[in-house]
């Protein structure tokens, strides 16, 4: 396939500044990596922490950590024989090295090089970025740097997408869906017939509702401050809703659960207030599973005696086990068990990416927004 020498990318030059659309050299893959022509890239709430500087990350950089696209080039020494040029794939934000102690134990979500190299330094596993400006100066990568027309992704973190699925909306499988799957399947270990609450029903929260329904939750309570989001949550499988702007969460959930609270409370926003809400509505012996990343170094209060006396658990969940769980998520989408088209509610061009992030900031993004690279 013809690969252009340059491409457009949304570059963050400094925290607090809007993304600038720049023309930079097209990256090329190295050992056990693939080059994708990006079809779409999802807009995630966690990006806001990097954009605003609440989470330290080197600049200039290219964000974008959930993508779908077509493989246009394979790097040398490919270890994954199932990948081929021309395949449409989804790329996961958690890019396991496949070599470290955690990866060897199957815990891709704890990959040490991913956090030490990519999340702290914006590089891949040879210690270098694949992006640079026209003068050869490095541009750092947040995951694969998917807010661009092309991106390099480790072969460990892409999975082929069948023709039956949208080549663009499937971008959200690599973060929103995989994070939700990890929270429900791995973090909560949800059992058939349990009750669930989802605090904050954005892109990840919406997918948690879907997975909870598929995995047999008897009662799914959606909590948010936006009536439109709660209507959408009902369409996705929520059995009850609570508007936190007008009702007390604990009072409402206790009423809905016969005074017991929920077996599992998912917190999908990463704020001390939503942590408190999730813990307040938890049953004795229940599990609170936080998924949302906080802005910088934040803490949330936990009542020690209540946690101990009521045998409650707090189980952090960051993504999932990419090499096993992303193929499972793709298969569930292909079989119609979880839909992605109804979660992707807003589509932007690359030039309008700042508009999309502003909608995330002001809370008017319903479900997940994506950047369509063909617009």
TrEMBL record:
Do you know which SUPFAM superfamilies this protein is assigned to?
GroES-like (SSF50129), NAD(P)-binding Rossmann-fold domains (SSF51735)
Q: Which InterPro entries match?
A: ADH-like_C, ADH-like_N, ER, GroES-like_sf, NAD(P)-bd_dom_sf
Q: Which cofactor does it need?
A: Zn(2+)
What GO terms are given for molecular function? metal ion binding; oxidoreductase activity
What name has this protein been given in UniProt? Answer: Alcohol dehydrogenase
Spell out the family assignment given in the record's similarity comment.
Answer: Belongs to the zinc-containing alcohol dehydrogenase family.
Q: Which UniProt keywords apply?
A: Metal-binding, Oxidoreductase, Zinc
């Amino acid at each position: 396939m013809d690969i252009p020498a340059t491409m457009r990318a949304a570059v963050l030059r400094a925290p607090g500044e809007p993304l600038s659309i720049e023309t930079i050299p097209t990256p090329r893959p190295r050992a056990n990596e693939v080059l994708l022509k990006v079809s779409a890239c999802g807009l995630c709430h966690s990006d806001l922490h990097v954009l605003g500087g609440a989470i330290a990350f080197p600049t200039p950089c290219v964000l974008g950590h959930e993508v779908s696209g077509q493989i246009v080039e394979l790097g040398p020494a490919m270890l994954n024989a199932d990948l081929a040029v021309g395949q449409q794939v989804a790329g996961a934000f958690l890019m396991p090295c496949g070599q470290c102690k955690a990866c060897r134990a199957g815990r891709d979500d704890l990959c040490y090089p991913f956090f030490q190299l990519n999340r702290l330094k914006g590089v891949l596993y040879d210690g270098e970025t694949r992006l640079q400006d026209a003068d050869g100066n490095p541009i750092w990568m947040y995951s694969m740097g998917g807010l661009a027309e092309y991106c390099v992704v480790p072969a460990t973190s892409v999975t082929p997408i069948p023709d039956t699925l949208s080549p663009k909306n499937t971008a959200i499988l690599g973060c929103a869906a995989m994070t939700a799957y990890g929270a429900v399947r791995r973090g909560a270990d949800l059992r058939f017939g349990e009750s669930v609450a989802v605090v904050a029903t954005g892109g990840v929260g919406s997918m948690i509702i879907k997975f909870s329904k598929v995995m047999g939750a008897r009662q799914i309570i959606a909590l948010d401050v936006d009536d439109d989001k709660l209507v959408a949550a009902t369409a996705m499988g929520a059995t009850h809703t609570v508007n936190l702007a007008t009702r007390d969460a604990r009072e409402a959930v206790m009423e809905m659960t016969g005074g017991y609270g929920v077996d599992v409370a998912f917190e999908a926003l990463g704020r001390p207030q939503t942590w408190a809400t999730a813990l307040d509505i938890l049953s004795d012996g229940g599990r609170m599973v936080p998924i949302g990343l906080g802005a910088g170094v934040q803490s949330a209060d936990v009542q020690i005696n209540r946690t101990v006396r009521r045998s409650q658990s707090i189980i952090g969940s960051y993504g999932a086990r990419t090499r096993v769980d992303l193929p499972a998520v793709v298969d569930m989408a292909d079989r119609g068990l979880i839909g992605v088209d109804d979660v992707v509610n807003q589509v932007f061009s690359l030039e309008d990416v700042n508009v999309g992030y502003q909608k995330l900031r002001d809370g008017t993004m319903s479900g997940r927004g994506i950047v369509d690279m063909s617009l």
